[in-house]
Amino acid sequence: MNPTNIQIIGASLFAVAVLHTFSTKFFEKLAHTRPAHAGLCHLLGEVEVVFGLWAAVLMVAMFATEGKTAATHYLDTRNFTEPLFVFAIMVAAASKPILQGAGWVTRMLAQSLPLAPGRSFTLVTLTLVPLMGSFITEPAAMTLAALLLRDGLYSQSISNKLKYAVLGVLFVNVSIGGTLTPYAAPPVLMVASAWGWDLAFMFLNFGDKAALAVFINAMGLVLMFSRELKALPPLAQTTEAQPPLTITLIHVFFLAGIVVFAHHPSVFLGLFMLFLGFTAAYERYQSPLILREGLLVAFFLAGLVVLGGQQQWWLEPLLLKMDANAVFFGATALTAITDNAALTYLGSLVPGLSDEFKYALVAGAVTGGGLTIIANAPNPAGAAILKGKFPDQAIHAGGLLLAALPPTIVALLCFKLI
Hints:
There is one protein chain. The chain is an all-alpha fold. Helices cover 74% and strands 0% of the residues. It has 21 helices and no strands. Helix 9 (160-177) packs antiparallel against helix 11, helix 17 runs parallel beside helix 19 and helix 19 (355-367) packs antiparallel against helix 21. The longest helix is centred in the first third of the chain and has 30 residues, at 47-76. The model has no long low-confidence stretch (mean pLDDT 89).
């Protein structure tokens, strides 16, 4: 079937958006050399703005070529549950009581290991928190891990090479660490109901492989940067008083409620509104909520939903031409240029797929989830939190790709050979 004009425009704009994500550092540098247009350059240098910006261009083109009715119908038929959920869970998970509790657990476990503080903190944060993502969802795990790293390891004078290496392992480990359950990882969520993948299936078919890869990746990074991590001084302990246990438990209740009703935006958004009211009522136990960062990430994902809806015409036939082995490696590679949940969602629409093909598609999609910022839905959340610690306050797409390749290969081998 020949693509329509708007599908061709959509595919072209999608390609431009992907190239734009690899060029954000250029715009940030341009902002310093062209101060007269620094505002526009900073805007174009925001990774979270990229897909929303080009999605807006697509909608302008759709309004111009197909009219108001077709354009608004297209928007009305998009599913924006995931961007809304990521926004809600990101803000709730980054609240002060939740972060203090998670930080306390991480520090206690790190101190119990017979390792230097920098080594033990890095190892625990890059293993425990990503695996927690299988229970509190990947966006929540990414937010927690990124904030712990920002205020811990990234607050020290560490090399740029270590910063990118940690980021690459974090993104890969969060992507695969959420596969122990059927509800936490976006690419698994897209197919779990349609394919009947329950908790037992995920744990038996993905859990052991994912946990092993997460540990190998974290341990490998600690060994590779052993000297630099060992030289770090003990990470600063928080001097802030812990909030009352009741306040923390109420925050946990809101966080759990948002997770449980992740597929029902009318419910989890209602809980989120109540959460905002509660934080305002007990402001003395709070720190500023990361509303701006959450909204930027939601805007990014919403743009991906709008642009992604025009990619099925070329993406689905490409997948269907592959056998199980080819789809595993193909999905890993394709995930670098499109959201991995979009890949698995298209697979869920195709009837008659073999069990081997289904496993290969999902395993490949989660394996490649750390290669780029757009590869996995939680990645923009981590990037938004950590980018201020990088030169020019920007994460270079090429640097992330190179840093994520070794842990991606480890995950690929675990899912393929074990």
